[in-house]
């Protein structure tokens, strides 16, 4: 078995690698070549932690495995990231463990890559202004990946905790893009593409904030009860997702579906658009909304790349089973 430690990931998997891996596996899902298994996520009654597994199998790429991990809110005080995860890969022919891969940076890269895939396939080609709602750990990854997928002229941002906005300003500066902190009303009025990446449990961005033609990538809602945008916005938008089963149960769509504002069958998996099996944006006026919940196959796809690179470069630690 090979071990690829967290410290090696930054040198092994780039944003471009993550984009390619995630776009390819979304298309494989649409072609029926890759499946995600039901998600397990539990409060373990210790350290206030949420812990779980996301597993899946890509028959085409022969990636079989799972990501185990979750959220430990007290970690920051210990100098650790609150989100902790590890990916385990298995030999699809024998079931033997083949690799254990640090999953923290990979999670940020694959989540941002999903938003970027949605922007490339669903945003208006003439989109110029990127709006960021959220300024936490993931937000910088999101901005970098989305800016790589589409040429924006400037960035506007809002965050509930204004003291965190420096992260968005610094990230935009590093990308060579002007940045301005704005109200939610201004953000909706100016942005052509909006990324939401918060841990909110109540809608922040309202239907009235968003104008026709906007593309939204709602990336923060990955658990039952979380919500970033008003359910009425999903009723007005054409809704896309990574996987419908997750979208309606733990994603942003859970609220609109529960309220009877959105039929699950009306949600298109983005892989179908990537694979040319379903239409993407149909007009310049349409609002498109991508509900990104994060699927196991994204984790397996980027972890498999990390393992292949680590093996090639002699950076993987080999352990006899
Ligand atoms: P973080 O703790 O670093 O940042 C949290 C962000 O949410 C900050 O911008 C904070 O100001 C904002 N926020 C907190 N409470 C809020 C509220 N009530 N209303 C509005 N904003 C609020 O977290 P992070 O690592 O950046 O992750 C952000 C979210 O993304 C989390 O919910 C996380 O679970 C989720 N996530 C999703 C995926 C996926 O695949 N979809 C992957 C990783 C993380």
Short description:
The protein has 321 residues and is of the alpha/beta class.
Number of domains: 2
Ions, cofactors and other ligands present here are:
nicotinamide-adenine-dinucleotide
Describe the biggest sheet? 8 strands, mixed
Overall average residue pLDDT: 97
Which range best describes the helical content: under 10%, 10-25%, 25-40%, 40-55%, 55-70% or over 70%?
Answer: 25-40%
Describe the structure.
By secondary structure, the protein is an alpha/beta fold. It has two domains: 128 residues, ornithine cyclodeaminase, domain 1 (2-Layer Sandwich); 174 residues, Rossmann fold. Helix content is 35%, strand content 26%. It has eleven helices and 18 strands. Strands 1, 2, 3, 4, 5, 6, 7 and 18 form an eight-stranded mixed β-sheet that branches. The chain has an eight-stranded parallel β-sheet with strand order 10-9-8-11-13-17-15-16, with helices on both faces. Strand 8, helix 4 and strand 9 form a beta-alpha-beta unit. Helix 2 crosses helix 3, helix 2 packs across helix 11 and helix 3 runs parallel beside helix 4. The longest helix has 19 residues. It is globular. The structure holds nicotinamide-adenine-dinucleotide (NAD).
Secondary-structure topology with pairs:
Blueprint: E1 2-4, H1 6-12, H2 15-30, E2 34-36, E3 40-43, E4 50-58, E5 63-71, E6 83-90, E7 97-102, H3 104-122, E8 129-133, H4 137-149, E9 154-158, H5 166-175, E10 179-181, H6 184-190, E11 193-196, E12 201-205, E13 215-218, E14 227-229, H7 231-236, E15 238-241, H8 244-250, H9 253-258, E16 268-269, H10 270-274, E17 288-291, H11 296-312, E18 317-318
Parallel strand pairs: 1-7, 8-9, 8-11, 9-10, 11-13, 12-14, 13-17, 15-16, 15-17
Antiparallel strand pairs: 1-18, 2-4, 3-4, 4-5, 5-6, 6-7
The structure holds nicotinamide-adenine-dinucleotide.
